[in-house]
Amino acid sequence: MKENRANPLLAASPLPFGAPAFDQIQKSDYLPAFRQAIDRARAQIRAITDNPEAPSFANTIEALERSGEDLDRIAGIFFNLTEACTDDEMDGIAEEVSPLLTQHNMSVLLDEKLFARVKAVWQQRDDLQLDTEAAKLLEDTWKSFARHGANLPADKKERFAKLSEELSLATLKFGQNVLAATNAFTLHLTEEADLAGLPGFVREMAAAEAAGRGETGWTFTLNQPSYGPFLKFSERGDLRERIWRAYNSKCIGGENDNTENIRRIVALRTEKAQLLGYPTYADYALEERMAKSPGKVNAFIDELLAPSLPAARREVAQVTEYAHAHGFEGALMPWDFSFWSEKLQKERYSLDDELLKPYFRLDAVQAAVFDLAGRLYGLGFTERKDLPVYHPDVRVFEVRSEAGRFMALLYLDYFPRSSKRGGAWMTSFRELSCRDGVEQRPLVSIVTNFTKPTADTPSLLTFNEVTTLLHEFGHGLHGMLAEGRYQSLTGTNVVRDFVELPSQLMENWAYEPEFLRTFARHWQSGEVIPQEYIDRIVAARNFLAGYAQVRQLQFGITDMAWHTLSAAPEGDIVAFEQERLRPSAVLPQVPGIVFSPSFNHIFSGGYAAGYYSYKWAEVLEADAFAYFKERGIFSREAAEHFRKTLLSRGGSVDADVLYRDFRGRDPQPEALLEKLGLSSS
Asked: Which of 320, 335, 406, 427 has the fewest C-beta atoms under 10 angstroms from its C-beta?
């Protein structure tokens, strides 16, 4: 007998704040929900195009902005779960749904009757007396149609839509391959001698991983909490090489190969851009960002690379010299660098993860981050154990202002698992919107891959993971503090090279003694972190700053290399990347190994022709944090000014204008070089 139940995805959630009813949603609900939501959205579009009244801002632009809300809500749940809690069935649904969504989106953007109405409103924009937010919505709507082929002739519109559909599947497959390749490799060790150099916390984590798989001994994976410490601490160079090669050859050949997928994605993006009259995809993508052009991005990268590359080479020489002085022979290879630099850092600053981790218990760090948000922005966090979650590891918090206003729900998903992709990110199940004076506040999610607690030890973070949590929480604040009427202009819906400003700004507090002393206590003894440890953290902040900067710039160089091509790439994909990076290489290049085939950010995420934005935003945040330092790092006045002028305003105003509203001037690039100790002045 067939179950007779309503699809929970097709009705408003009965839960407080409209929280997703994860406990009611079944995988079989998604596809019918998507199909019906697409039908509803199409009906809403028809209501706009068939409206006998003359096109107006309200009956065309606002109506279009409000259309498809059910579809947005369902997609917000489904695609976040395909990143954080997926399986073969979910991946299969995604492959079926993605082309349906692309077809729907393109049918809207290429609808001639709809575009005619949008164009009519756009042409009368000077007479409409719109406020700033409404004017920005009109401008963005017009540009969205134009940039998605609405002005193209019929045959080219059809081709553009076809390319978009193929691209959605190719990028989806890219990410699926990376996750599958990450899960496919394990380093399973059964001999104590193989663990030489590994500290207790690394061994415990590996033993727990092995036990969870029904194995004896110790199991290491390519997830960062396992892979990173192994490279840092293992004295077995042969095993370091083995796991390094596995990590860095993900998706090069084999059943999860992404090399041909890269060729396809680049070709599709390039052809789409050229249909619209742009020579390259980068020209198309950057037109709507702060940087504006590939030339400006490349000049920006070169400006940072000029002082950073010599510094990076000096740093590598210092690490190599240290390694040779301690018995290492030959060239320092990439799988050796983390190991020997960790030893040098420990000797120079008496600082390492094993020393610091006991002071950074996850629950205490979380409480401190919440407290910081309270001190700066007046936010309070209350755990809601009554609200369902999509995995037992997930926790959810109700966020309110000092005045008691509901601001958001915050979902926290900290620990790695095979169903979750690597890395850390912030996303939303629902973004801010307002209709008829009724607000729907955001449902924000932060996902990481921190070390899981074991039977004997709570989750203890490395210092780098502390900064990661602050980073993602900065994105979360961008969402939680959002204000505005239109979803597409609120929260993190800003240009790509501006979105990292709030997140990277928050990382600065990790280096402030005044903040560290509020929470960094030894998880067993309760001892406050000694001042000498804090001094070492601050002193070591710029250890290998040149190397780290060059590494980030190389990601940007590679991204721009792929996306400034004027034709589909020919020749070997691996050779292409290695040739582009050879001038900036600071360690030996390993034949046959590159990072592009697993570079999710640019081939599956939203950073195509945009990876430079991390460094662009670092310039902004270095300059912005100077404002806080001048007024006090806990200054409510400084935070309120930042919130009002920039953080809460989303994309309702151009990003460069928002920054000037906050700082009173344009950012000063020298601020970043000074912060990193790379300034020539």
From this structure: 406
